[in-house]
Amino acid sequence: MISLRYGSMKMDGNIFNGNSINTEQILALPNPLGMMPANLSVVPNSMDMSMVMLGGMYAPTDDITLMAMGMFMDKEMNLSSYKPMMGRDFLGKFTTSSSDLSDIAFGALFKLKENDIGRWHAEVTLQKSLDKNELKDEVLTPMGMNMDMILPYGMQISDGATRLVLGFTNVSNLNDNWSFGNQLRGKFVISDKDWSFGDAIELNSWVQYEINSSVSLSSRIKLIDQDSIVGSNPMIMAPVQTANPKNYGGQEIQLGLGINLLTSIFPGHADRIGIEFVLPIEQDKNGLQMETDYQFILGYQKSF
Fold it and tell me: What is the Cβ-side half-sphere exposure of residue 64, based on CA atoms within 13 angstroms?
């Protein structure tokens, strides 16, 4: 099987320890990364992130499936700069962006059990984040100057770390039309450089209703628990929340609503198209972070 997936995420506004916070309140917060300026002076307004994932799966036996995947990422953030002292006057808006190949992964699925009721399998994957962690762009500083600077962690395409991904999935059939499933998946850093995004645990629970042989609807709840960034880059020192490694990770609960279609686009087995819209239910993020607005996912699969 080959698969192609496109994902888009929109972030708008900011939250502090899970609660909404406005620009004036952000500008009153201290800058923890240096004495000058004493307070945060650059505020993120919105961010758009898109991902394109190309994957392939091959089953040499009935019990083992080999997997490979590569991901390309594109990020764009809109920010505002303010004077560091006195009236904190507005200086202007600017945009930073980055895009490149993010990571590659190789893994395997192991079938643990399968019967008429359902199936269980385990996943072991090695994921390598590529060395795209010192990308630069032009920023408007609180001094009113445009400078090329290393972008904060959230705008970097990757962190250069190697991760071990472990997962367990169960899918059960309730009847001819209804099925449900659960997946527990963890990503653990086993090797990094100066810094890396934190370890993460994800739990997905979903239910699917098959309308007919070609169309099914799905709904899922996703729980995410991620640690903050480990380590730091001493060159990332801007007076903006995204430059602070502590302002990453946290807990989130998301609701996803999707539709899956089986159709004939290319010769051979049926083509599968999946569309999902994801909304945040709870965002208890660490420290000061941007607020997730929504996610959109479009996927295509072709089996041989």
Answer: 7
Report the distance separating Cα 79 and Cα 81, nearest Å: 7
CA dihedral 95, 238, 227, 15 (to 10 degrees): -60
Q: Are 205 and 179 in contact (CB under 8 A)?
A: no
Structural domains of the chain ordered from first start: 2-302 (2.40.160.40)
The Cα–Cα gap between 104 and 54 comes to 10
- Tell me the per-residue pLDDT of 50-100, one tens digit each, with 9 for 90 and over: 999 999 999 999 999 999 999 999 999 999 999 998 788 999 999 999 999
Contact 161, 195 (CB under 8 A): no
Q: How far is Cα 44 from Cα 12, in angstroms, rounded to an integer?
A: 9
Locate 274 and state its tokens. 């999946």
> CA-CA distance, 190 to 105, in Å (whole number)?
14
**pTM for the full model?**
0.92
Eight-state DSSP code of residue 245: T
Before 44, cis peptide (omega within 30)? no
Q: Which residues contact 87 (CB under 8 A, 6 or more apart)?
A: none
Tens-place pLDDT, residues 37-59:
999 999 999 999 999 999 999 99
Beta carbons of 111 and 59 less than 8 angstroms apart = no
